[in-house]
Request: fold
Amino acid sequence: TWMEELMESQDSHATPVSEDAFLVLTESGGSYQIPNVLLPSQLHNDGNYIISLSKLTRYLGEMAEGMGVEIYPGFAADEVLYNNADDDGNGNGAVKGVATKDVGIAKDGLPKDTFERGVELVGRQTLFAEGARGSCSESIISKFDLRRDAGAD
Reply:
């Protein structure tokens, strides 16, 4: 199973969930527990395991790379790159990739000895996993007016 592969590849162990406790924290610093019988089934962890999130993401990254996915950890996307008429002939403005940020810039804005120009990462598909309020996500939401029918600001 994938869990066994994960444990072997990451020299890890999974801890079975032995009990659930759903606590409500109060403003005074106390808490009270809601009885499990009153909780919906989605909040019950019977049969689940507790594992290291960092080891899980490392394992999933290795699996994705084994399938040909390119992952660039440690490089933050700085801007979204869009197609224009010169790129695809139809000027549809679709996302074509991202550009990473320049590194090695001093506080005064001048390049240091360690300066490296950011790179453009272009592909048929670009996956954004920075959350709904990330800078690149905000750029895409604005460009394509994705909040038009959301009913909230």
Notes: The first strand starts at residue 15 and ends at 16. Helices lie at 2-10, 53-66, 85-88, 135-143.
